[in-house]
Design goal:
about 425 residues, single chain, Erythromycin esterase, eight-stranded mixed beta sheet, 17 helices, 2 domains, EreA/ChaN-like  fold
Length: about 425
């Protein structure tokens, strides 16, 4: 058995990942089972560099606010702002405090120096403007979409004025009140104003689509793509706020589902630009349903990876990550009868596993599920091996930075 498992292990490098896949994927997703560990992000950075240099990848997308990510993209493509400003203003969830994320942005900017626009690397956040404490106001995305259309489309076709949007939106703190996450009565998401804004947002997105032939000739591809991002974000946020105000048992299922749906739409837009690497929690990128307990009850929803995979097929590749120890979090050596325990016995500090082949090897003696003593780490469910294209295993994690609190999906058991 030990020899069979060793035969599934390879060096963690882009070339080895590609050999596990039927073809170069348009979107290669690298998952992680916990957040806030620069060891994992350093590994991601190295893999991205290899994908850029060896496989022609040009974009990286991470689990961060899609609107804030535009600040990072402007910096890496044109040098707008300073590195310090970008790390502070371009990341959500505390990701800007990561030394590995800082190194990624620095390297991308250096790579792009003196390169033509067609060869420059691009950065994207693909999460919605959402925190565990609530959601952003739809103002930024909605007014940016309106401003774009007002510049390029006849005024008579616009469904409303900018002043109407401002009046309906009201003060932003009405939308961002953290009390609304636990008390639907505190949310404005089902107010008359919010309902009117959902209709206007839908009309603005429809107008953007209807004027595509003109906009292709009148504006740049980057401007059109940003306008589409504004539209997706505005409609997604308004839908999220609507369900924050809901009192039915389906409330939390809708909220986590809308978040991953927003992620999926952003990932599909990134993939349409060309081959890209996506990095987020395993639970967001896996092909199966995700599940977690909220308020003592289980909540299930289709992950962004499942949604994207259903659209892209073999053009979507998913490599999960599993860990041996996170001793500074109380996660010690894994039991020998678990998947992580079997991999922990390998001599390598980190390796890339042929996940479907390992699933076949273990079919007659399936490993026991591992239970983490720390809520922030989600062990790999052995039943998910066969649906993963690869599995990166890292034996031990040293202590790293700590991000702000974010929802951590639990994989289905």
């Amino acid at each position: 058995m030990a020899t069979d498992i060793k035969d599934t292990a390879h060096t963690v490098e882009a070339a080895a990942v590609m050999r596990l896949l039927p073809a170069r994927p348009r979107l290669l997703a690298l998952g992680e089972p916990t957040h806030g560990e620069d060891t994992l992000l350093d590994l991601r950075n190295e893999l991205f560099r290899q994908l850029v240099e060896e496989e022609g990848y040009r974009t990286i997308a991470i689990e961060s606010d899609c609107m804030m990510g535009l600040v990072v993209d402007d910096y890496v493509t044109t040098g707008t702002g300073s590195l310090d400003e970008v790390m502070e203003q371009g990341f959500s969830h505390g990701w800007g405090a990561s030394a590995a994320n800082r190194e990624l942005v620095r390297w991308m900017r250096a790579y792009n120096e003196d390169r033509p626009a067609s060869e420059r690397l691009r950065f994207a956040g693909f999460d919605g403007p959402l925190e565990i404490t609530g959601a952003a106001s739809p103002r930024q995305a909605l007014t940016a979409l309106h401003d774009y259309l007002a510049t390029w489309v006849e005024a008579a076709l616009l469904p409303c004025t900018r002043e109407t949007l401002d009046r309906l939106l009201g003060a932003d703190d009405r939308w961002t009140d953290p009390a609304a996450m636990t008390d639907p009565a505190q949310s404005v998401g089902q107010s008359a104003e919010a309902g009117r804004l959902r209709l206007l947002a839908d009309d603005l997105v429809a107008l953007l689509d209807a004027r595509t032939p003109h906009l292709i000739t009148a504006t740049s591809r980057d401007d059109r793509e940003r306008a589409s991002l504004y539209g997706r974000t505005a409609t997604g946020l308004l839908r999220y706020h609507h369900w924050m105000a809901d009192t039915s048992p389906a409330r939390m299922t809708w909220l986590v589902g809308v978040r991953d749906q927003m992620m999926a739409h952003n990932l599909l837009a990134v993939a349409a630009r060309g081959p890209a690497l996506a990095n987020a929690h395993n639970g967001h990128l896996q092909r199966q349903k995700s599940t977690m307990r909220m308020g003592g009850a289980p909540v299930e929803w289709w992950s962004a990876g499942a949604l994207v995979s259903s659209r892209l097929g073999e053009e979507y590749g998913f490599v999960a990550t599993a860990l041996g120890t996170i001793r500074h979090r109380g996660v010690d050596s894994p039991p020998s009868d678990t998947l992580e325990g079997l991999l922990y016995a390998l001599p390598e500090d980190r390796c890339l596993i042929d996940a479907p082949r390992l699933a076949t090897t273990l079919a007659d003696t399936p490993p026991a599920p591992r239970v983490s003593p720390w809520f922030g780490y989600s062990p790999m469910d052995p039943v998910h091996l066969a649906d993963s294209d690869g599995l990166v295993f890292v034996k031990d994690l040293p202590q790293s930075w700590t991000p702000s609190a974010v929802p951590t999906p639990r994989t289905r058991t």
